[in-house]
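Bench notes, afternoon.
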Amino acid sequence: MRSRLGLAALVTAAVGFLSCTARAADPAGLWLTETGSSRIRVAPCGSGYCGTIVSAPGKALDAKNPDPALRTRSVVGVQILDARQQDGSGYSGSLYNPNDGKTYSGSLRLTGPNTLEVSGCVMSVFCKRQSWTRVN
């Protein structure tokens, strides 16, 4: 009886550990941008992940959008990350930057359980990276 209880405890601990490990390797969740000014909800979409702005400072208008009709909309609720292609240690796709109204080749990858590296590139040569911090 004692060995069965010990085995059950071991199995329960292993399942808990695997669940924590899977969560740590999953970029889904709420992230604070590097500047600390915006929060992005990253969620599964397609075979990868998409990110949507859930909070931003000030009026947070999409004033630099190339479409004049969208320049008065709030950036809150705008999908800025579409990374559906798995590529080794992360996911790639596109990244919209509401600060300049441009869309870049983008990627994301977890660099730690609570750190997400997001990058946007022009011509795959000129890249900027940010480290986002997990909020939840």
